[in-house]
Amino acid sequence: DDEGLSLDELRAKLDTVQSLEVEHKLNERNAVDLVRKLQLKGLVDVVYTLDGREYVTHAHLQREIADEVDFSNGRVHLLDLSPVLNVDAAHIEKDAGRLLQDRSDLHLVGGEVIADFYLDSVAEEVRELLQESGKLVLADVARRFHLPLGFLVEALKGRMGHVNGTLAGGGVFTKAPLPRRQR
């Protein structure tokens, strides 16, 4: 019973207990064996890192992929994630697919995960370019942003109010009349 002990005696007892060696310790090898057995029984599904030193769950990997998309200003190639996340590209591709099923603001285009906020910035830049020139050729815009033309058109359709333009005949045209050029 420790109720009658002074504060100093309790501190000394705590120091003694903390300095004792633990008889039953789970070492790294035992932990690895335990995870393998849990995996074989289907009780846990983890992904091994490339260096084999860690495991991550699929949910954790999906959060890391989403974080990298945010960190990369809304656009990241899946192949670039393997060395960054220390996970095989096949696992990244699989979990990116799962992530995209849950997140309607993310799109997989040509091996890249692209966020809606990146597409908003593309629309903003298109708006600025349109104000300067009055018209843009969509194929040129697609090349400028390294996006497939069909995907770019679909992305811009929902953002034309912000762009202040009209999509027609393979181009984007300003809604405002252009000033006449003086000759």
What does this structure look like?
With 183 residues, the protein is of the alpha+beta class. Among the domains are: 1-44; 117-174, Arc Repressor Mutant, subunit A. Helices cover 55% and strands 15% of the residues. The chain is built from 9 helices and 8 strands. The strands form 3 sheets. The chain has a 3-stranded antiparallel β-sheet with strand order 3-5-4. Strands 6-8-7 form a 3-stranded antiparallel β-sheet. Strands 1-2 form a two-stranded antiparallel ribbon. A hairpin with a 6-residue loop joins β1 and β2. The relative contact order is 0.07.
Low-confidence stretches: none
* Cα end-to-end separation: 102 Å
How many β-strand runs?
8
Q: List the secondary-structure elements in sequence, H or E.
A: HHEEHEHHEEHEHHHEE
Structural class, by secondary structure, is: alpha+beta
- How would you write the strand order of the largest sheet? 3-5-4
CATH architecture of one domain: Orthogonal Bundle
Provide mean pLDDT, rounded.
88
CATH class of one domain: Mainly Alpha
Helical content band: 55-70%
Tell me about the largest β-sheet: 3 strands, antiparallel
Gyration radius, to the nearest Å? 28 Å
Helix tally equals: 9
What percent strand? 15-25%
CATH topology name of one domain, in short, is Arc Repressor Mutant, subunit A
Per the principal axes of the C-alpha atoms, what is the gross shape? elongated
Organism: Eutreptiella gymnastica
GO cellular component, one term: endoplasmic reticulum membrane
Protein name: E3 UFM1-protein ligase 1-like N-terminal domain-containing protein
GO molecular function: UFM1 ligase activity
